[in-house]
């Protein structure tokens, strides 16, 4: 029987895999045009982290305005982007850490600390954007924060989970490295009366 929990050397690639998933979701959030969209027809508004586009009901062409002209737009983009860059660095460090035969557990805990920094930067960007966007950009009709914005939050949630696991992994150092001998419990039927 093979038992493979998180604190298991055979499953060491689970955490870097989750960080890779967070990177993919972060790329979708950075490149996606669905941070804010019109909720129903006529679809007259859509926005990304970088710009806000509107169109009239009669004109099919989008007219875009850069959010980088606003201080809050630059701040939201910069904080999310800085968090994303640190996330990529953490992914590379995690791959290196789990590739070496002798795992350096203080190194792993440092990756967990960096992941908390990533989460802080991303949360700041994800909070600045909707608050200031709804205050300073005129909205037409019913609008909603949409799929790309959701991918940004999903990436952040995965990063927070990974940060906890990276910080707690050194507590299971012996189990991960296989330094603990298994304990077997066995009692034969003829010896059972003597054990009482």
UniProtKB/TrEMBL annotation:
Keywords: Apoptosis, Cell adhesion, Cell junction, Cell membrane, Cytoplasm, Membrane, Transmembrane, Transmembrane helix
Membrane-crossing residue ranges in chain numbering: 12-32, 77-98, 110-131, 151-172
Topology with respect to the bilayer: Multi-pass membrane protein
Annotated GO CC locations: cytoplasm; desmosome; plasma membrane
Chief place where the protein resides: other
Matches recorded under InterPro entries: P53_induced (IPR015664), PMP22/EMP/MP20/Claudin (IPR004031)
Source superkingdom: Eukaryota
Location(s), subcellular: Cell junction, Desmosome; Cell membrane; Cytoplasm
Single biological process term from Gene Ontology: cell-cell adhesion
Gene3D superfamilies, alphabetized: 1.20.140.150
Family under the similarity heading: Belongs to the TMEM47 family.
Protein name as it appears in the record: p53 apoptosis effector related to PMP-22
Organism: Eudyptes sclateri (Erect-crested penguin)
Gene (name only): PERP_0
């Amino acid at each position: 029987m093979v038992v493979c929990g998180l604190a298991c050397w055979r499953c060491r690639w689970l955490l870097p895999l989750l960080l890779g998933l967070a990177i993919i979701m972060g790329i979708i959030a950075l490149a996606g045009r669905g941070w804010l969209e019109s909720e129903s027809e006529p679809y007259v508004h859509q926005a990304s982290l970088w710009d806000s586009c509107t169109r009239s009901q009669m004109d099919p062409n989008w007219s875009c305005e850069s959010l980088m002209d606003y201080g809050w737009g630059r701040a939201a983009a910069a904080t999310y982007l800085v968090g994303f860059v640190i996330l990529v660095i953490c992914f590379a460090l995690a791959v290196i850490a789990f590739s070496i035969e002798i795992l350096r557990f203080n190194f792993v805990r440092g990756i967990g600390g960096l992941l908390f920094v990533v989460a802080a930067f991303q949360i700041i960007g994800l909070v600045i954007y909707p608050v200031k966007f709804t205050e300073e950009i005129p909205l037409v009709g019913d609008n909603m924060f949409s799929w790309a914005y959701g991918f940004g939050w999903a990436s952040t949630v995965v990063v927070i989970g990974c940060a906890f696991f990276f910080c707690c992994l050194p507590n299971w150092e012996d189990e991960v490295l296989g330094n603990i001998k298994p304990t077997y419990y066995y009692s034969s039927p003829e010896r059972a009366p003597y054990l009482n």
